């Protein structure tokens, strides 16, 4: 194998109903690789792994060959898992499948979250794929984020210049018209106010783990109101909820993955050398977008790069041309 790119397409986590802390994971990958004498090919790879998660120490353990497997050997078709599904003594607690449009419940169970289980990072085979699904916030960079954003906020206050927040306006576009829906509903529902202690205990780490959600869903996940979440964001120096920027980058990344898959099937139209160059260019662009998405999660106030904006515009134009051609 000269080169290969693996893309996570499915992840299922099972906990044992017999052995405390025992976990099994099933990972599905779309692999694009180049084989000698064959050229670029694409296939699916499925892996089942075993772990033991505990406060004393988490570790990866091999799945015995004679032990019952979660992923049944010889099964026809693509494996399908759902949360709550039981396979022998194993119960599914996380299910993700990008092809079958299966999304996991958020937030993840505490033992599968770095804030609830810091030792999870010692298990890269599990943590890296969980991070792709749940987009964990990097805790190591959070103190720097809090300090730098607080300094910028203080400078704006002392200089008399308004913060780049436009008060409610910047958030209004991301609230899914909360106030309009309430006014049109005819009846006004009174919600119990969140406890002040609970509000004060919400950290930037917890807020950052919800950046991939619309602000209304994020407020429900954090069990606070939208207005309270906006106020907490201001306290941490976040001028705009970054959901749309992250969603835009995700869309571009998925588009690149689709194009990457199409390139591997277009053997007739492309020469092998040109095909290899095209795949390398697409892979490089995908990695750049992934790094930019991570940078925005670390610094929500930052804007998209000019090159990314131009690339997004080119993608929109290509989609519109394809749509007009199909009409």
TrEMBL record:
GO MF term (any one): DNA-binding transcription factor activity
Coiled coil: 272-299
Cleavable signal peptide: none
Region (Disordered), start-end ranges: 146-195
Keywords recorded for this protein, A-Z: Coiled coil, DNA-binding, Nucleus, Transcription, Transcription regulation
Cited PROSITE patterns: RWP_RK (PS51519)
Protein name (Swiss-Prot/TrEMBL): RWP-RK domain-containing protein
Organism of origin: Eleusine coracana subsp. coracana
